[in-house]
Amino acid sequence: MSSELLVVEDLSVHFKVSTGTRTSKKVVKAVDRVSFSVGRGETLGIVGESGCGKSTTGYAIQGLVKRQSGNIRIGDRELGKGLGRDRQLLSRRVQMVFQDPTSSLNAKMTVGQILTEPLAVHNIVPPRERAERVGELLEMVGMPRSSALRFPHEFSGGQRQRIGIARALAVEPELIICDEPTAALDVSVRAQVLNLLRRLQKERGLSLIFISHDVSAVTHMADRIMVMYLGRAVEVLPRAALLNRSAHPYTQALLSAVPVPDPLVEKNRERILLRGDVPSPINPPSGCVFRTRCPIAQEICAIDVPKQRVIGKEAEGQTVACHFAEEVREGGIAALAASSLLAPSTMKETA
Amino acid sequence: MGVTMQSPDPKTIRLMTVDQNSSTPASRARGLLVAARTSARSLDFGYYIGLLIIVAWAVIATTAYLWVPFHPTEYQDVANRLAAPSATNIFGTDELGRDVFSRVMAGAQLSLPIALLTVAIAGVVGSVIGAISGFVGGMVDELIMRVCDVILSFPAIVLALAIVAALGPNWFNVVASISLVMWPEYCRLMRSQVLSIRTNLHVTAAISVGCSPTRVFSKHVLPYGLPAIMVKATVDLGMVILITAGLSFIGVGVTPPTPEWGAMVSAAQTRIDSWWLVVFPGLAILSTVLAFNFVGDGLRDKLDPQLRGGNAKGASAKSMLQRIFLGQRKTKETPA
Amino acid sequence: MSTVTVTSRIGLSSPEESKAVLKVSDLVVEYHTARGIAQAVNGVTFTVHAGEKLAIVGESGCGKTATLLAALRLLPSPPSKTVRGSVEVDGTDLMTLGPKALNEIRGRDISIVFQDALSAFNPVLTVGRQISEGVRQQRKLSKAAAHELAVDMLARVGVPDPDQRAKQYPHQLSGGMRQRAMIAMALAGEPKVLFADEPTTALDVTVQAQILDLVRSFKDLAIVWVSHDLGVVAGLADRVIVMYSGFVVEEGPVEDIFHSPKHPYTAALLRSIPRTDEMSGTHELVSIPGSPPDLVALPAGCPFYDRCAVRVDRCATDRPTLERVGDTQTVACWVAQAKDIAS
């Protein structure tokens, strides 16, 4: 318990969206009763496709969007729901690295000003020593000290993301939330940033939440992985379990859809192809949100919302939200879908 | 082929290229495409000519009384009235025998400050109110926007006319009335800027770092909104000169005998055969309006990161000035 | 490295047994920018045989997309300019055609799918109409026949309920469905060659898997697939071209490129991406230092020189040419070529 840095319980974030006319507003449950925790020095990966609520989860922890319900605890401090004073204090302990390093840096400020800002806002370094601290931060992320005098647009994408990471490090936070930190970067530069994040984490004992749609990046970075789908956490599992002990059909399908950069592996792969696209979060399916695309969906999946429950030994730390988790974990959904045991039912898609 | 995708017209392709963010994969080459479109030097030419004219007028306005050949108001030579341009009176003389050249030069002293002051007042007041409107939102926003709607629903010149007529014709009332008519435009522009900037990732990042709302606003929202305001202001300078001229033309603007371009054109309306009375002050107005418009257009291109393409976005006031006066700043890429 | 399946497939696509449907030779494209002339594509040459899947991989700005667009003469000029090169489709050089003949070939013999399906469609026309429009003009089809063709095409690319979908507008389809519809539109004219410009990049992985599965099923169609995603390329391509700052740096069969890359850039790129199938996660990824050179001021020697781990003096001054290294690959690298001669 005390080893957990961040505990999130039943987090829900709802957005109101207008549907044409001004008066009729629909509620989108961007994040729906998600619970997880991050230990000290641990990396939690959050993975899922667009609209699954992974970024919103990160924003909600950082207090950038208002949460509908749920508790967030940092260390032994419970965070209030408002977006006011608590988030000022929060930003000393939790920092964020954003997806697009071009737009997340103020283009009208020098790199030095950008890095000084958190120091000044929290007043943690006396004004005279700030320039020195900025230099240290730049060196920490592998940039020359002279960068402080230049503007973000004078740097390449990878370098800009380094600046973004330096800004997050400035207040010496305990947790850094990385929201798709490599999505906007080129392949060869991506590795630089991933390596940097890992090195910094190891050196400074940081906790990381690594949010990405890129399954391979998440599996490379994370100790534990939370898989999200349509606002729900469908499975949380240790990295070692991902490859052959995952217990949710979506986790297995997602993993099988990720292309492997090896033609021989690709040729002999067994693929689980899901039907259709992710449904609209405005009108999610009843019961299990994944059932409309699940190859082994049964009647019960449309009626009962599956609870997040522990599977296997408690110590393994794997939880899953699926009625048939045991079967899926044992047999794999490709085999299950083919056998008559859990054949795809021919229910109508009722949303 | 029209709409089929096998042959999208160049416009479609351009759209595709502009939509790309410069740092997403597979788009640096497309970024170059965008940059290339702005290489048109012709715009730059107009910009520098405009700048030159404005500087020239500014110098004239401040020094005219020191060197003009005749005193613009006190010198009258009724015997020589309505004389065509000659060696002594190069722009001719008016109906009281005053030297038109001297009056046009001296007119700059009033016409330019009126324009600058009006735009400054309208710009600052409008921007502040607009920024509040966009940043605070809710009822405040609704209220401010409705007030703007009311003012904007009148034709600008008619409203200004009514106000000056009520306050009495002098140059200060002209400034006041035109500012009153103009601020809602700045208000709306600033509001829309703030609304869109507020959702930028760098603002989210600033909040995430722990900046207070005031700091977020002053350091991260405002600097992004100002270039648009500045550009609108330069274009409006020309507009104000025209409105002032219009008011003087009708007779509610600057009172005689003070030399003011609009008033001079207005006074000449009954003397069409003495063409120099209309043409020279008219040319003065024309050159200033054109100059401000050229500079406005040029500024927009120089300050707009989209038009400058690629990775270059706006920068500090210093580098902004550098760009304005020295043309585009060269962007450097350095290896890590 | 080669297995039975590999050799048989290479045999199939060898020039002796199947004819070349597309020949691109010495394509050179420039962009005129405010900062000078950017050399976006520098002498790209490749051949595609019937039914072959050729992938062009590289990072942003490497000229892969520009190559496709220039080959179809879709690059707006100015600012871009195709300086030289020929693009022969079935023996006809697109570069010399007049506008009318060009339009006839585009869409009929060769067509293209883009990354962003939403902006590639006209928002105010139905999907069905846009799918059949090109063919309808060329074959003078009636309205009913055109609709039938559109429905047929949508069914072929796996769109459920195609009759309904054909009557809908682009924004009413989901992302994956739209991409399928765009493929249907590109295939409506029964082209021999299909260009694909990262058509799955904007899609979710599970949807991407569906689209890749569909594309793999087009056995007879020659495809030139541009991508930065090495995983996608591995599962799709027969042959791979690796591009770097406008140059082809390596070309070869997909297995050889992935299992014995000869160019240091290809090798580093492959080792820089994490893989999901081996959970060796604790290792450091190989990263390539620095970033690609400025296209406006390309270095005199090898464009990869600054970032290369195995460079020699010659690389700084002489630009390497594409030469055969080993049995199947061609590589533009002095070091790899020297090693090959030595062995």
Q: What is the total domain count of chain B?
A: 2
Cα-atom radius of gyration of chain B: 24 Å
| Average pLDDT reading of chain C | 85
CATH superfamily of the largest domain in chain B: MetI-like
Going by CATH, the architecture of the largest domain in chain B would be Orthogonal Bundle
Overall number of strands of chain B: 0
Strand order of the largest sheet of chain C: 6-7-8-3-9-10-12-11
Q: How many β-strands of chain C, per DSSP?
A: 12
Question: How are the elements arranged and paired?
Answer:
The complex is a heterotrimer of chains A (351), B (336) and C (343).
Chain A lengths: L3 E15 L6 E15 L3 E5 L6 H8 L7 E6 L2 E2 L6 H9 E4 L13 H12 L7 H11 L16 H13 L5 E5 L7 H18 L2 E6 L2 H7 L2 E6 L2 E7 H4 L6 H9 L5 H5 L31 H5 L5 E2 L8 E2 L4 H7 L1 H6 L13
Parallel strand pairs in A: 3-8, 3-9, 6-7, 7-8
Antiparallel strand pairs in A: 1-2, 1-4, 4-5, 9-10, 10-12, 11-12
Chain B lengths: L9 H10 L8 H10 L3 H27 L32 H37 L1 H15 L3 H12 L3 H28 L2 H9 L3 H38 L10 H7 L7 H29 L1 H4 L8 H10 L10
Chain C lengths: L3 H9 L7 E14 L2 E14 L3 E5 L6 H8 L8 E10 L2 E2 L5 H10 L1 E4 L3 H4 L6 H13 L3 H14 L5 H5 L8 H13 L5 E5 L7 H12 L5 E6 L2 H7 L2 E6 L2 E7 H6 L4 H8 L41 H5 L5 E3 L3 E3 L2 H9 L1
Parallel strand pairs in C: 3-8, 3-9, 6-7, 7-8
Antiparallel strand pairs in C: 1-2, 1-4, 4-5, 9-10, 10-12, 11-12
Helix pairs in contact in C: 5-6, 5-8, 6-8
What would your notes on this structure say?
The complex is a heterotrimer of chains A (351), B (336) and C (343). By secondary structure, chain A is α/β, with parallel strands linked by helices. Chain A folds into two domains: 38-67 and 80-229, 3-Layer(aba) Sandwich (Rossmann fold); 247-350, no CATH class. Chain A is built from 13 helices and twelve strands. In chain A, a hairpin with a 6-residue loop joins β1 and β2. Chain A is globular, with a radius of gyration of 22 Å. Helices cover 70% and strands 0% of the residues of chain B. Chain B has helices at residues 10-19, 28-37, 41-67, 100-136, 138-152, 156-167, 171-198, 201-209, 213-250, 261-267, 275-303, 305-308, 317-326. In chain B, α4 (100-136) packs parallel to α7 (171-198) and α4 (100-136) runs antiparallel to α9 (213-250). Chain B starts with 9 loop residues before the first helix and ends in a 10-residue tail after the last helix. An eight-stranded mixed β-sheet of chain C has the order 6-7-8-3-9-10-12-11, with helices on both faces. Chain C has a four-stranded antiparallel β-sheet with strand order 2-1-4-5. Chains in contact: A-B, A-C, B-C. At the A-C interface, α5, α6, α7, α8 and α9 of A face α8, α9, α10, α11 and α12 of C. Chain C: InterPro entries: AAA+_ATPase, ABC_Ni/Peptide_Import, ABC_transporter-like_ATP-bd, ABC_transporter-like_CS, Oligopep_ABC_C, P-loop_NTPase. Chain C: Belongs to the ABC transporter superfamily. Chain C: This is ABC transporter domain-containing protein. Chain C: It is found in: Cell membrane.
